[in-house]
Amino acid sequence: MADKSKIPQPQQPNPRTTIISVLLFFLVAFFVGQQFFNMSNAEAKPTDNLITSEFVQAVEQGRVTDVVYNAGDGTVSGTYYPAVTAGSSAADAYNGAFKALNAKVGTLQDASTKEPAAGIDLETVDVTRLGSEHNFTSTYTGAAIYDLMAAHPDIPFQVTLPSAFGDILLSLLPILLIGVMLFILFSQMQKANNSQMNFGKAKAQKSQEERPDVKFDDVAGVDEAVEEMKEIKDFLANPAKYQSMGAKIPRGCLLVGPPGTGKTLLAKAVAGEAGVPFFSISGSDFVEMFVGVGASRVRDLFKQAKEASPSIIFIDEIDAVGRQRGTGLGGGHDEREQTLNQLLVEMDGFDKNDSVVLIAATNRADVLDPALLRPGRFDRQIVVDTPDVKGREKILKVHSQDKPLGSDVDLAKVAKLTPGFTGADLANLMNESALLTARRGKKIITQQEVSESMERVIAGPERKGRVLDERTKHTIAYHESGHALVGHLLSHADPVHKISIISRGRALGYTLSIPAEDKVLNSLSEMRDDLAVFMGGRVAEEIFCDDITTGASNDLERASKMARAIVTQYGMSPLGTQVFGQPTHEVFLGRDYGNTQDYSEETARRIDEEVARIMKEAHDRAHEILEAHKDQMDLMASVLLERETVEGEACEALLNNEWDEYLKHEDEILARKEAEEKAARERDEQLADPNWRDAAVEPGDQDPNGPYRPAAVSAEAPTSEQAGVETRPDEGDGGEQGR
């Protein structure tokens, strides 16, 4: 489980910014609320501005309902009824109502006097509060207002005294708002200026307090490179040990190797165990849109490293800035060359007592500038190559430590089946196995999941939904049978492990071979047999199919490349040991564009003739083999059309032309395999049971460097017949089937 202390925490907000934001929010809310309050009052009652005499008249006529007097500015506010005059709509309405009432009353008799009842005298009716109530504002200076309101005690009267704080706040509030807005504006401008000024600062990540979790024990398969890096770490930890012998600390160390071999992982291991400040940066981080930024960042990076010495600088993908100088296609005085020049100066300009080591990684050491590679800058070049079979086994153990492997999974066998795999490929293989196991709802990773994941990594995912017609399947079956039979009958070709006509990735079919061991050198005999195997698919189409197809295009491409390399690069042809077509490295051309023809037209003609001869020889050998085994080819094609995939004992019997004998014992073979799988499943179920596992595992039974396995169910070592190595199939192009 990951350390919670190293999980990146969300960035905490700036307290000053938070306070300013809260104040600004409340100020805006206050103004908005005040505006809404005023608007609601204005919509409820209309407001009239009265002169002082109109206010006094309204009070004396009893049309005022309440009065609020502000002693500070002498303003008067409140509510009142406007005066109703004769002829107004309100007066006419009330007069009409009273006249109708009097007419009705005149028809009645007074009970005491027996006379008609008297009507209502309109002149005595109080019409001072007719109509709707209005708000009003007015002014009244002096103390006489107190006497006026004392004479009308029935009117509510309120006096408000002036508030200095409120007045000051209202007067300063607009200024405060403007100040806050200006502060935010200038803060953003300051940040923009700082970011522009920081262009020249190095973007290196300094690892001192929180170091990577990777240790040297986590780097497997490259023991020699690990030993070299341990020595560099020891240089920094105990410099006196080497200085007493007159030795100097190496200035730089260059990690060279194919992608995925663990160069960056090795640098992380140095950072995890160095005990000194570790600065890591990518080569592309030096280059920006502004001229001179790269050189400035190099200076700043080495300045930080010297201040923190002893320290380590790691530059990943240094070929981004360390390419060979020259005008090239893009001009000679570019930003990248300025950065490289500054890097050369800084590396060779270390003071004698500066304990700073530069580690760089690249997979294109051939394009680096020679001045960068000389001793005194990069004193050591450590090759991090693809691991051998023992290295692959160690890498598989590292990547399976946290995965529940079944008892039938043998990592040594898997290592033999994966020649050419890098550490990244092996990590991907184990991860795909875990994903496939989880997808199937299993608790334990078995050999079946590992094998299927291996094919997925090599040939791509299986394309079950691809529908092929019978004619296409017929062609693919004979094509793959031709590859397999030719490879099986030639002594220097890799033995065939599996034949399939199921589409995977871009290939319509594929044939997997098993080299007996990792190949370091290829002999002429091996390459001649490989050429014949390449031609086996096309020859099978010529003999057994109505027409040839584009399915062999990738085979022909690989065969042509190998045949031309035999003639022009390896010196294995009658033309002699001369290498033809050497790169010239023209200064006015890019390095990859500098290959020119350094031989005559007559030599070019002889090269083409020799390549054509080698290709025809391979074609004839394949044709001779398949012509002599037509019946076996028909059998192989029919079996593939029926079963689609043949592997293991079935594949061996089919290639040895012992298919009838295999069919007699097939039920026994399948029953034995089923029994073995059942026993493995039972052991895996026990392995998945935590109660049984705790009881079964004794102290000392666990391999600290391998996956979790109880000793009672550990897998047996594979037999020599079971061990093997798988090769990668050809990648088809469009409608091609691969080998």
TrEMBL record:
It is found in: Cell membrane; Membrane. It is an enzyme of class 3 (hydrolase). Binds 1 zinc ion per subunit. It comes from the Bacteria. The active site is at E480. Residues 676-696, 727-739 have a biased composition (Basic and acidic residues). InterPro entries: AAA+_ATPase, AAA_lid_3, ATPase_AAA_core, ATPase_AAA_CS, FtsH, P-loop_NTPase, Peptidase_M41, Peptidase_M41-like. In the C-terminal section; belongs to the peptidase M41 family. In the central section; belongs to the AAA ATPase family. HAMAP family: FtsH. This is ATP-dependent zinc metalloprotease FtsH. It comes from Xiamenia xianingshaonis. The gene is ftsH.
